[in-house]
Amino acid sequence: MRTTIIHSLSIFTILGLSSLFTEIRAQEKVKGIALELTSSQRIGGVSIKNIRTNTIVETDQEGNFAIDVQLNDYLAIEATGYEKDTVFVYDYGVKRIYLNRLNNAIELNEVYIERMTDSRLKAEIDATKLAGKYSDVGQERGGIRLSPSRIFGKDAKKARQNYKLLVEEQHKRVIDRKFTTDLIQSLTPLKDPELALFKEQYRPSYKFMEQASAEDIKIYVIDSYKKFNTKKGK
């Protein structure tokens, strides 16, 4: 009986240690840099808070920081004179966080859009979608009425152009975060330059990636690699 109790305790101890080691491995220190969106100047004194753990660090004078995270954590970003923002941790690579000054209107272009955090990108998509609407909803008589100024106005046209760019960037990020080099190399022997060619030729659609499970994406990579090899052999 005593031997059974000791054996059971040993199993629980091993399981407990295993769980602890798994948790330690799952949490890593991510490094990053805080920069101003329009000028790319580094920003010191930025507060970086892990929302899950409530751990807070500040960037140094060069805008550098390091903080313990797990995948899928959110970091809350605050700095005096800048808009608050959040960053989603989807990998352990170096994070470049671009902050926008309060009340600073920016001229959107592809470079600025690429620098935006996900939350900032989402906010800009919502704003430009509203600004580029073709119609107004009537409050007094009800119904919908077309607005010539919204259809033909310069600002509305620009908003619709920006909206398209913003949505394209959002879709690109969804694909890039799932159709990764690490995933492809774990399933195929591809290396550059063939790897780059494969990623370009068999880049999946946003519609597929939005709905696909992790297993669906693995099957897609394997099937695409077979097609890639067949083409190469011709």
Question: Keyphrases for this structure?
Answer:
234 residues; alpha+beta; Immunoglobulin-like; three-stranded mixed β-sheet; 48% helix
Rg over alpha carbons: 24 Å
Read across the widest sheet, the strand sequence of neighbours is 3-2-5-6
Largest sheet: 4 strands, antiparallel
What share of residues are in beta strands? Answer: 15-25%
Assembly state = single chain
Give helix % range: 40-55%
Number of strands: 9
Q: Globular, elongated, flat, extended or rod-shaped: what is the shape?
A: globular
Mean pLDDT, all residues: 82
What would your notes on this structure say?
This protein has 234 residues and is an alpha+beta fold. It folds into three domains: 28-99, Immunoglobulins (Immunoglobulin-like, Sandwich), CATH 2.60.40.10; 110-176; 181-232, no CATH class. 48% of the residues lie in helices and 19% in strands. The chain has helices spanning 2-26, 110-115, 118-131, 148-152, 154-176, 181-187, 194-201, 206-211, 214-232, and strands at residues 27-36, 47-50, 56-58, 64-70, 74-78, 85-88, 95-99, 135-137, 144-146. It has a four-stranded antiparallel sheet with strand order 3-2-5-6. Strand 5 (74-78) and strand 6 form a beta hairpin. Helix 3 (118-131) packs antiparallel against helix 5. It is globular. The model is unreliable at 5-9, 11-15 and 17-25 (pLDDT under 50).
How is this structure best summarized?
The protein has 234 residues and is an alpha+beta fold. The protein has helices at 2-26, 110-115, 118-131, 148-152, 154-176, 181-187, 194-201, 206-211, 214-232; strands at residues 27-36, 47-50, 56-58, 64-70, 74-78, 85-88, 95-99, 135-137, 144-146.
